[in-house]
Input
Amino acid sequence: MKFFVILVMLATYIFAADNMDKAVDESKSKIKTDNITNDKSKENMQQWINAEFRLQPYRTNYLLPFAIANRTYKSHEDDVTYKDMEAEIQISLKLKIANNLFGLHGKYYLSYTQHSFWQIYADSAPFRESNYNPEGFVVFPISDTISCLQMRSLKFAIAHQSNGQPNTKNKPAYNGFNMSKSINYVYATLRLQHKTLISDLTLMAPYLGSSDLKDNPDIMKYIGYTKAKFTYFYNENMFTLMLRGNLGSQKGAVEATYSHPLYKSSYLYAKIFSGYMESLVDYNHYITKFAVGFSFSR
Output
């Protein structure tokens, strides 16, 4: 049964990628606008027919049916057992909401990312964890042709990340463990380019004076305040390396990914993660994990 579910997931993904550029809503396909005399009405009807929503990929969107960790995941409920093998799904989209406010040439966005961990190989195939990450950010493009840094953009963001779970501290079944995990934070990212190498250097911090860390007061010890991500293109191949950590606690994580085009908007996608904060519920557990599957954005 589990193998059948995996096949359905893969077939759905491949079919969607194959038809992404020619998808038609048959309920709208015969609607005519030629005889509409009101230009505004005609324009908006055509946008509705074409389903022009202006949503764009943000972070990598992927489906990884095979992801195996170096240890069995701990369940915080007595009657639930997890395995070391699961599936991962990430959906990440952004929407541009404004341009050049205050004459500073910034591009303003809202985004939403959801990263889910699906125990498809365990009994009843529960979702072990889902992390929800909405953001608001502004990007200032930089045309740097003089300095050795070759700066390309500066990004400022305000973000929230949580797992959507209730407070379980006082529930006997959880033995004092609180399933609710969250953090509100701000960050800034400077992007550099050296030929086919893109470097993203990030500083982040929780809201000053906020109480958003009460569910996980030591989370910054494991996430860290600094992050560097390197993206390298070689022919059709794309490689990334992410390093994140707290210099004081000497804890953090490293993640490497590889993608290669398969067919139209689909890519072979593989990643290796090692460190803390793979997911919010296990932010203070060290995990090494390999995952492979497909992505439909880079």
Remarks:
- DSSP finds three helices and 13 strands in the chain.
- The first helix runs from residue 2 to 19.
